[in-house]
User: Fold thermospermine synthase from Sphagnum troendelagicum.
Amino acid sequence: MHTKIEIKHAQTSKHDSLHEKRGQKLVGLFNGMEKVKEKEEEEEHVKNCKQQQQQQRCSLWFEEEVERDLRWVYGISKILHIGASEFQTIELVQSVPFGKVLLLDGKLQSAELDEFVYHESIVHPALLYHSNPKSVFIMGGGEGSTAREALKHSCVKKVVMCDIDQEVVDFCRHHMTENAEAFSSPRLELVINDARAELESCNEKFDVIIGDLNDPVDGGPCFTLYTQSFYMNILKPKLNFGGILVTQAGPAGILSHREVYSSIYNTLRQTFKYVVPYAAHVPSFADTWGWVMASDQAFPMIKMEETNYRIQNRIQGELHFLDGQTLCAMLALNKHVWKTLAGETHIFTEDSARFIHGHGRAFKNQK
Amino acid sequence: MHTKIEIKHAQTSKHDSLHEKRGQKLVGLFNGMEKVKEKEEEEEHVKNCKQQQQQQRCSLWFEEEVERDLRWVYGISKILHIGASEFQTIELVQSVPFGKVLLLDGKLQSAELDEFVYHESIVHPALLYHSNPKSVFIMGGGEGSTAREALKHSCVKKVVMCDIDQEVVDFCRHHMTENAEAFSSPRLELVINDARAELESCNEKFDVIIGDLNDPVDGGPCFTLYTQSFYMNILKPKLNFGGILVTQAGPAGILSHREVYSSIYNTLRQTFKYVVPYAAHVPSFADTWGWVMASDQAFPMIKMEETNYRIQNRIQGELHFLDGQTLCAMLALNKHVWKTLAGETHIFTEDSARFIHGHGRAFKNQK
Amino acid sequence: MHTKIEIKHAQTSKHDSLHEKRGQKLVGLFNGMEKVKEKEEEEEHVKNCKQQQQQQRCSLWFEEEVERDLRWVYGISKILHIGASEFQTIELVQSVPFGKVLLLDGKLQSAELDEFVYHESIVHPALLYHSNPKSVFIMGGGEGSTAREALKHSCVKKVVMCDIDQEVVDFCRHHMTENAEAFSSPRLELVINDARAELESCNEKFDVIIGDLNDPVDGGPCFTLYTQSFYMNILKPKLNFGGILVTQAGPAGILSHREVYSSIYNTLRQTFKYVVPYAAHVPSFADTWGWVMASDQAFPMIKMEETNYRIQNRIQGELHFLDGQTLCAMLALNKHVWKTLAGETHIFTEDSARFIHGHGRAFKNQK
Amino acid sequence: MHTKIEIKHAQTSKHDSLHEKRGQKLVGLFNGMEKVKEKEEEEEHVKNCKQQQQQQRCSLWFEEEVERDLRWVYGISKILHIGASEFQTIELVQSVPFGKVLLLDGKLQSAELDEFVYHESIVHPALLYHSNPKSVFIMGGGEGSTAREALKHSCVKKVVMCDIDQEVVDFCRHHMTENAEAFSSPRLELVINDARAELESCNEKFDVIIGDLNDPVDGGPCFTLYTQSFYMNILKPKLNFGGILVTQAGPAGILSHREVYSSIYNTLRQTFKYVVPYAAHVPSFADTWGWVMASDQAFPMIKMEETNYRIQNRIQGELHFLDGQTLCAMLALNKHVWKTLAGETHIFTEDSARFIHGHGRAFKNQK
Assistant:
């Protein structure tokens, strides 16, 4: 089923007035694009929050089981909005250390104070390496931040964002105002569908396809979007010549990169001619995170200066995490991780999938 | 069977032997130098631990308050050794996610499975950038791992390790066998003294001085070893021409680098002519960690290949984290952190110190 | 001062002595018999601990999963002793809220500040209801506290304590000095054996048999000591005329009494002519705890005054929890729990056992 | 300001339909009066919840700091409703171990599965001891459960419930349907006012005054409602001859009764001629809880049978916790607690108040 969503204005009138006032203040802060400019205001806000906390400790806590015996636990000062879809529960909460946090089925998806790291990283490297990206297809990404970053590229004429869960999309459109501009862009085409089904049935090809998917988790159907057969048979035919696939690829830290990262890397290496893994530390995920780019045409050697030049010429608005030097650093994985990647032989198939415990981004596209 | 028990002495020989077997196995694993070779055995061990854990959840947990409302919590499966000095308590525990962990005053100092990241990072960049380092002075470092890494450089003729706490040194020498070789090296000179007092009174100069100190924490005396006056008046006079200071500099993550990292960087920038900050993610610290090198003589531009060449020629034994490419990545801080460093104006003095909450390495040198 | 260190043997004698002093102080405090008299000293100690804690939060925590999503978590300020047997690990730790705590396999067995509630409750009601108890058999109880309470009855000539784990017995004898007197009593006969095997093979009968066993837990062999066939065939034949069995019977709170308490009660009701359940709140167990007395001869109606009279006449030393009025309160379960007990039809057999999650006392007698 | 509230029907139409369905199911379960009859359905529900939990652990947790180093932590499976008043935040959440839980300012007030213990205990003893209670004044109690219990007494003609926070009252009236009947009773008079001000200004006297207040907490104004001057000058003049005051009196466990319970008891003993303390374990409070009754006329000696007779004759609907035997047990505090109460000399005044850490019921009436 292919549903084209009409864009309407956020119905803020629905909130009660008390909430609206507080809500807007916080929503304003969640705007990644304005983050650095608003730093002082933000720090003031955080300071106030922390002073309040002096009097009263948090009693609601979010606990992520990174592994069975490793927990990342942070205080929640306020429940901002609650919702539910047929697929999952949806919550927007105010966390003390990471600002506003979006939870799907109780799993952290995105945190106000560092989501720019993840979203700049998943979008810009592929778009900057491409000589002239005009069309982008996002698998998942219902939150809107990945689309927001892609739309910063003035050469991009069309972004298709394909998420399975309409409620999540509606929820984020209404409550995460930092993506409001993206959601209302005429260049954005919003599709509510399973990404695999959508790619199979659509007749277009794209310059860049982005896998902003949840991690492969045992029992979830989403792991099929990391398999060799999916990449080979469904996805690759939808890439234009020179087209690039980039996918989030799970935790890539010193202790966690063997869970799925090395396998996704190797699976792509066995499927595409050119593969580039990279990684960056995302504080709210409690780990270094990994992504992999893949193409059947060679990636050019781009120097720092050229990267900075392309950022300046192609991108409207400022990036806060990524520049030429940062991209260099992300691409230069450390010796320990490289050694694993180089020696990895596992190929991700439906019969031999690998899963991660409960790390980070989860259950987004489950049916 | 009816056994009437005579009161006899506890048969410690019995359970000691049980313990001993397990202990030795684990101690062997803690040997960073053998880590990669022993990967399979290690993974087997971790798998067994985790299977055991299926039956029985951890009931002892170590909780680090990264911030007031942010906790890093991991399961402890066994208390291995306990001790105490006049300065602090000393514990060696078996953690599930990070292997053996050394705690001083209940604060994580070093974890078996990723200590090589921290210790390779604090030692090798400065020694590799130096044209011919012969003498090294370590402030703190009682655990022995920093000395172990420094002694890998065959050009180094003398390593002075100056820690204030003899018990910690003794404890680590006996219980952390991976550093046994280092502790017994004739090139190691072990001094039990306050690092400041030691530097003030000693007549030698050094090629590299390493600050393997605990973080500046409010109320701790150690923060004075991060002040401009200490660097200027005490430390710099003890550096030979071409000498390099490198110090650990606290958390350097997207959300944490303003706590002390930017200030330590700026303080050194106001004190030395050439300053080089760098960082890497250390999983057990739950953050990206920062270090800063400083010198009054220019750092040479060293390419990846030259770094790899120096590693091959100078270092005995293998590095597991660092190579030319990794060093590049560490030096290329991201745009967000660079912007803060570039704009930082705070100078760390005894009257205007900055402190961190309770992050990572703590209280090592307190009097 | 510049001290060149010779490598010498660890001066364990030094820090041992430090430890010893502290240890002895704490061990002294664990003496339940002196608890009330030493209240002021104790409160001083607790106050000091808490003031210390103002400066430094606990980083080691003990977490008991009362249920899957309910945790009872308390700070550990010190590891006092560690040991292990062929059956389990044994630890004595200093907790902040409950004083010294004995852990077997990481499960709380007994806490200094409230163990008198559990141990007075399991021992004295049966011994006070018996007209003239001379011999007592304790199944389990290796810690020694149950024997200590039984030995307070001057009419008791012989206490057989039968625990399967010699190391636990040795550990407690050495480290829990409050039971030292009990352990050295000529009236105590210590047997290292499985309680079932011991009862089967012994030729004696007893006036009171006490089941100070761990809870029935899935996979543990100890649950067989709660079955009807055990009570009927093994235990009952070892009771003298007028003899009383009393057993701990798991959590008996408003929300937890259906787990095993009602079933143990009903099983005894189907096996003995007279059965008396009772309960009391034990803070460190995070619940109300239950016990059941059973006999084939009628329990006399004893008024408060008679209970107080018997306490005064039979017991040497003071009770801190139990008197006539308290016993009345323990026997008068609330309406909600009584209703469940009255309606319970489940009988505990080897084929239809009930288990509890991970509550409280565990794994003590496992083979 | 004295506002008399008109009763209106719960506007369930406001919820979205998805929520309504789930909500009603859960709200139905929260109905204390139907609890036992619906036990099977309830257990089915809990079983389902727990099976769900097998697949997915809780990630939202409520943590109560019972003391600084003692935590009571339970999983939250769903946020049901959120609100806020000028005094506090208001949340209704679905907890796994305790069912629906009402939180004010993040502090647990009442839990579905055991609120009947607290509310039967605070209401019925005083009303049963009174020969013919016709009028009841409740200080606090905005949740409605205390009024619900009082209205079960057919002899009671008027219940005045005086809570300071209209939003809490409105929230509970709409979302806690088990109290709907009470809220719509013509015998209930709802007053939004500070309890002290209301008592001072009103001209009536009452047969029973119930202090369903939050605990005395440092910095909160509510502690003044526990002072001798309040009892003497404001409250006592509003009691009819034979009138009884009953107040919640904080934790009364073996380890916690010295915090405020003994002091409140002694303060009342110094103010009224006859004082009766009692206590019961409330699982969700993680402790035994205390109440104190006080009167200037003697309490009659009522036997169990008489209590049961009065319950049968006066109370419409069934009690689930309390009967004659249970009341006996509650009144018979254990020896340890009695000893403290008997020896307590502290009197609670505005200048010498005692406070508890953060236990249980909090901040309800703060201005």
